[in-house]
Amino acid sequence: MYMEKSKEFKILGWIIVIFLFAFFLPIESERFNTAIYASLDLVKWYAREHVILCLLPAFFIAGVISVFISQAAVIKYFGANAKKWVSYTVAAVSGTILAVCSCTILPLFSSIHKRGAGLGPAIAFLYSGPAINILAIILTARILGFEMGIARVFGAVFFSIIIGVIMSLIYRKEESQKKEEQMNIVAPREKDHYGKQLFIFSH
Predict the structure, then answer these.
(1) Which tens digit of pLDDT belongs to each residue from 40-91?
(2) Which of 2, 18, 168, 184 is deepest in the core (most CB within 10 A)?
(3) Which domain holds residue 103?
(4) Within a domain: residue 52?
């Protein structure tokens, strides 16, 4: 009985809040209308330019990674059993060839992580990718100077490795479990892997 009354009072409270919000809505205020218009204009811009030109290509690239890059290759270079200096170095500099932002890097990060990459290298790739892509480097060097462009590259790579190591230490239990699982994975021969792909595409 008490629970039912409490639920009813909660519903009544929400009704009152919504009513007061609608009653005192300052639609006559020019500042309010300008803010609403600017918000909707930003949503329109995001849908037209950011989603279509950035997010969709990022999901496409993530799909390409899942199809054409074998899990064995990901585990070899980014897996929990890979050499740390190799995995972190490759992950930290891989974003150079990708013109991606902090949003579009997420599907790529998710793709390599699900394919078996360790959390540390994946986080290093996630952090450094948007910072060291070739367009960002050129723009930084052009506007702020060549020294700042070089500093951006080295700073992004260095801190991405530091952050990746910290994250792997925080989640070391999960990483140790992944390491044990990957020790039992028998990597297929590259010839067999590509032969299988050719068979699938030919049929």
Answers:
(1) 888 888 777 777 777 777 777 777 766 776 667 777 777 767 788 888 888 8
(2) 168
(3) 70-185
(4) no
The torsion of the CA quartet 39, 41, 46, 49, rounded to 10 degrees, works out to: -170
**Number of domains, the chain:** 1
d(CA 39, CA 58): 25
Asked whether 108 and 59 are in contact (CB, 8 A), the reply is no
Asked whether residue 41 is domain-assigned, the answer is no
Within a domain: residue 196? no
76 inside domain = yes
Model confidence, pTM: 0.61
Q: Which residues contact 124 (CB under 8 A, 6 or more apart)?
A: 88, 91, 92, 160, 161, 163, 164
